[in-house]
């Protein structure tokens, strides 16, 4: 079948060989050629395009613990700021290391200006404990142990039993993992929407290690269902005890906490939408060339795709730089790294991503000049 014709080259057929590759069958005169090309989903733009638009963009960097997420996130933030973008870099990892990376005290849960770059660069280390407390205080007065105690004290054991069956007490006393990070992200979204912070055109999240991110992604649906149950139960309880409650004068307080829960649910949905927004968001996976890290990255990538999170780039950090004379240890290490890098090429999840290799450098990457150096290697 003739699809397109140029004076010299004829495309006579094309076939989708994998979800991310198209095979083109070409003919030039009597000779045949087969060419594999990436589908548009594959093509991640370079840094110039990442910095081109003035529209606000969010970048989330995630991966296994210790692979260099913070270093890559901080170096991207410095590069954006030096390209004229007022930038905010946020750590939602409970074990923050932004302060160490910038060699500056950024603790305290407030925006701190980072000294050095050409345009404003601010950093924020979010305190996840505070976010968790917010959830606890909202739920405990609206269907958790607070309501359970109240029901018990009113002798309404049956409804209290229902609470037990739903395991709500458990849920509310130990909030699900990932919730603190989701709340932290939604808080950042709230304040960057205010006119005071509208100047930020690039917002970078240095996220918690993979496990947290995976849970965070499935959290909105889980919470949606759980909070939905709590609110339904809350409604039942309100009806059953309205007469008693009016005597005790608790109506106002309960309505307040129900509002809070509904707002929390809305915010979780907002976070999910942000993660899925292909126009404004990109999730960048950071890994190292080891079999374990690549396997974990592959699982992360599959989960991101399942959750419809846009992912185009894979940074393989700490790759041994070329050397003419490897010692025995380095030669072994290089062999291992080559094997891991080969895994990426045949991994169905990772093979279509834009691969960025960052070398293992012989100095610790700390402070803006070092981050600028790393940024110029990674973000091209
Ligand atoms: N390419 C590199 N070459 C040399 N050292 C590096 C490189 N990338 C990161 N490092 C160093 O590795 C250590 C861990 O890096 P970093 O804190 O960025 O990782 P992380 O993935 O954010 O860790 P965590 O999961 O603990 O937050 C740091 O000491 C950092 O300076």
Brief write-up:
This protein is an alpha/beta fold.
Strand order of the largest sheet: 7-8-6-9-5-10-11-12
What ranges have pLDDT less than 50 throughout 5 or more consecutive residues?
1-7, 14-25, 36-42
CATH class of the largest domain: Alpha Beta
Number of helices: 13
User: So what's the overall shape?
Assistant: globular
CATH homologous superfamily title of the largest domain: P-loop containing nucleotide triphosphate hydrolases
Radius of gyration: 25 Å
Cofactors and ligands: adenosine-5'-triphosphate
What does the average pLDDT come to?
A: 77
Oligomer classification: single chain
Tally of individual domains: 2
Structural class: alpha/beta
Family: Belongs to the arsA ATPase family.
GO cellular component, one term: GET complex
Catalytic activity: ATP + H2O = ADP + phosphate + H(+)
Pfam family, one: ArsA_ATPase
Write up this protein:
- The chain is globular and about 80 Å long.
- A hairpin with a 2-residue loop joins strand 2 (9-18) and strand 3.
- The chain has helices at 47-52, 69-82, 98-102, 128-140, 145-153, 157-165, 168-173, 179-192, 210-248, 251-276, 291-306, 328-346, 368-378; strands at 4-5, 9-18, 21-28, 31-38, 57-63, 87-91, 112-113, 121-125, 202-206, 281-287, 311-319, 354-359.
- The protein is built from 13 helices and twelve strands.
- Mean pLDDT is 77; it is low at 1-7, 14-25 and 36-42.
- The protein has an eight-stranded mixed β-sheet, sandwiched between helices. A four-stranded antiparallel β-sheet has the order 1-2-3-4, with no helix packed on it.
- 49% of the residues lie in helices and 19% in strands.
- The longest helix has 39 residues, at 210-248.
- It is of the alpha/beta class and 380 residues long.
- The protein has two domains: 4-42; 55-283 and 365-380, Rossmann fold, CATH 3.40.50.
- Bound molecules: adenosine-5'-triphosphate (ATP).
- Adenosine-5'-triphosphate (ATP) binds at residues 65-71, 93, 95, 97, 209, 317-318, 358, 360-361, 364-365.
